[in-house]
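Incident review: delayed structure delivery

Summary: a single-chain prediction request sat in the queue longer than the usual turnaround. Root cause was a stuck worker, restarted by the on-call engineer. No data loss occurred. The affected request and its eventual output are reproduced below so the record is complete for anyone auditing the incident later.

Affected input:
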Amino acid sequence: MHISQPTYDYYLTGNASDIAARPRPGLVLAGGGADQDQAMTWLLDRSDAGDIVVIRASGADGYNDYLANLPLSDGRKADSVETFCMKEREGSFDPFVVERVRNAEAIFFAGGDQYQYLQLFEGTPLQEAVQQAFDRGIPVGGTSAGLALLGDPYFSAARDTVTSQEALADPLGPKVTLAPRFLEAEALDQVITDSHFSERERLGRLLVFLSREPGSRGLGVDEATAVLVDGDLQAQVVGEGAAHFVSLTEWPRLESGRPLDLARAEVVRCEAGQSFDMLAWRSSDGTPQIYRVVQGQLQAGAPEPAEN
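Output delivered after worker restart:
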């Protein structure tokens, strides 16, 4: 079913009625590129085969058939998949949109442009509905721009994207724009997320984002890769690439127009099958590395010895 409204398009595959299910909390943090069946199956499992709501600011119903036909680990399938493709901010105030989001058993933010998301969703009843759904224990996920949106704070791309080279050259430059968190989630408290991480060489800009926010940490996720965080804040990595958990030991003094100097950054690289404790911020099987930045130039150090 497809309903076109002036402020949004609505697509439904499956049962239009609201199902009674028992979802479990979790986060799917995907780095963009090809969606990983293992990650999306995990999301569906956590939904208890309930009603899945996909939210996007461009495109159409590309996730509907994929998620509707993807079996859960026990063989069941989702009761329904609904996509809201928002055209105007007013659509985020629509009672039907808000009700369907609030009653979802899982919510997933597609890729696109996170600045569009900020303009369409920030401070609206739709944002409140997402938070209410998450607070009652449903899983929430996002890929690419949808992943960025889940950071605390998040890179808003309000003045277009920024490369690592641009950000490192001027950490206080006008293209380094951070917005307050969209979703309040303990696992992502003061964690800035970034996607397409290795493919677009984004470690430099993530270090700049962290330098702008004292006390923050970072999570960069490669394409075709996802981090699955359960209700106990234990994360596992799935997919073809890696996830990069980033922390600083001190926060540099920043000056407008001056390149970044950073004495030490610690990065733990976790590949598929490896895990990370989001609460303790450590991994028993990931690969730790150190970096520094000298006059805006990122330099890698030797891998640190793993803990016994």
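Verification: The longest helix spans residues 37-47.
Action items: add queue-age alerting; document worker restart procedure.
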